[in-house]
Amino acid sequence: MKAVSKRALNLVITAGPTREYIDPVRYLSNESSGKMGFAIAAAAVARGHKVTLIAGPVHLETPAGVERIDVVSAREMLAALKEAFLPADGLIMAAAVADYRPARRLAGKWKKKSGPRDTRISLDLVENPDLLATVGRRKGPRRIMGFALETSDGRRRALEKMLRKNADCIALNGASALNADRTSVTLLARDGREQLFANQTKAQVAKVLVRVMEELCVSPIGEA
Ligand code: CTP
Fold first, then answer.
1. Cystine design at 179: which of 33, 46, 73, 108 (Cβ 3.0–4.6 Å)?
2. What is the DSSP string of 59-84?
3. CATH fold of the domain at 10-100+124-218
């Protein structure tokens, strides 16, 4: 067991979905409630750390002592993340970032086309930046915990994501975690360590993840 630093860390945590607008009243998003990221923020503050919580659109109270930055789209989240990550010791990337956004955001409402009942319409999408990979490329001595939401072949895909995005470890969970109070998480680390937290509250999992981040932030680069 490595000694855990008593030093207060500067941690950035992202949470919730992003929302990608099609027109003034419609958007693409996902089922993320933000509960996991908010639970991590609360657990980190309880351990004495400085926390910047970058949150997509969610209906959750800000945990006491947390500095919260609200964003809507993936690109807004990236801008806030780049700034907050600069002076940070570590990042926990729990947000469910939309991979695609509409190629154009219409200024007025997208009007229904009149035509035969089976008329098909399509929406052009473009890729959003990968936030984790973007900050991962230039992380220097900072530590990063990613999340992976997988519905099949989870372990292999999560490990591949961890390496591709240059994270130090990755928390793998399934779709049942979305919008739920309990979750099952497998934490995979670069040194091959694997820990399963089965059917626990998000608050319980959050405490463990914060401890893992503390360990990562005190271990020399290469040992993560
Ligand atoms: N992530 C990110 N930017 C994106 C997409 C994902 O930073 N545009 C981050 C998530 O916050 C998470 C990790 O990457 O920490 C993995 O997210 P996930 O949705 O599981 O994977 P994707 O990379 O989006 O791949 P796919 O949806 O194809 O599984």
1. 33
2. --PPPTT-EEEE--SHHHHHHHHHHH
3. Rossmann fold (3.40.50)
